[in-house]
Design a protein that fits this description.
This protein is of the alpha+beta class and about 170 residues long. Helices cover about 25% and strands about 35% of the residues. The protein has one domain: STM4215-like (2-Layer Sandwich), CATH 3.30.2000. Strands 1, 2, 3, 6, 7 and 8 form a six-stranded mixed sheet that branches. Strands 4-5 form a two-stranded antiparallel ribbon. The two termini are about 15 Å apart. The relative contact order is 0.22.
Length: about 170
């Protein structure tokens, strides 16, 4: 079997760690492994804020980025879905936009996924990350865990997050 580095998972783990720790004080508080994850099954656990990260597309940048046969610039795509528990109409949008702003802020402030310390915890370096870009993947809306629910359970919005990384194969 050939040894290789799973660069996609390396970046995913870096995103998850940074979001968990960056949002810990204001939004996520505890049970961080449930609140920022790759599984929607955690949505029924009763917390007010969740982030579910799903795989997106990835691509090698053509021509201009290829430095050699073994070095490639990659755009790794992730679909980040934010969920904010719906409590009452008068506060729904302010809670949701505050959470969305915090998520975007922490992704931009950590856009190189380099070594940093958040809340006294050191985060590993994800090597050769050049940038993170964020674009909405749709409008904010409502989500019901069960279709027959009268009121929505969450407000949600997907974001496309692209991480550009220079990788070395071989």
């Amino acid at each position: 079997m050939v040894d290789y580095v799973d660069f996609y998972k390396q970046v995913l783990d870096g995103l998850i760690d940074r979001l968990r720790l960056s949002l810990k004080i204001d939004f996520l508080v505890d049970h961080l492994d449930e609140k920022v994850s790759t599984s929607e099954s955690n949505l029924q656990r009763g917390a007010d804020y969740y982030i579910v990260i799903k795989p997106g597309g990835h691509s090698a940048l053509d021509g201009r980025s290829i430095q050699s046969k073994s070095i490639q610039t990659m755009d790794w795509g992730y679909r980040l879905e934010m969920y904010v528990r719906f409590i009452e109409r008068k506060e729904e949008w302010s809670r949701f936009t505050a959470f969305r702003s915090a998520v975007e802020y922490h992704l931009i402030m950590n856009r190189y996924l380099d070594a940093t310390v958040i809340e006294g915890e050191s985060l590993a370096v994800v090597p050769n990350v050049e940038n993170i870009s964020i674009t909405p993947a749709g409008e904010a809306g409502y989500y019901r865990i069960t279709p027959e629910a009268v009121m929505p359970n969450f407000m949600t919005q997907p974001l496309n997050v692209t991480v550009r990384q220079r990788v070395r194969y071989g």
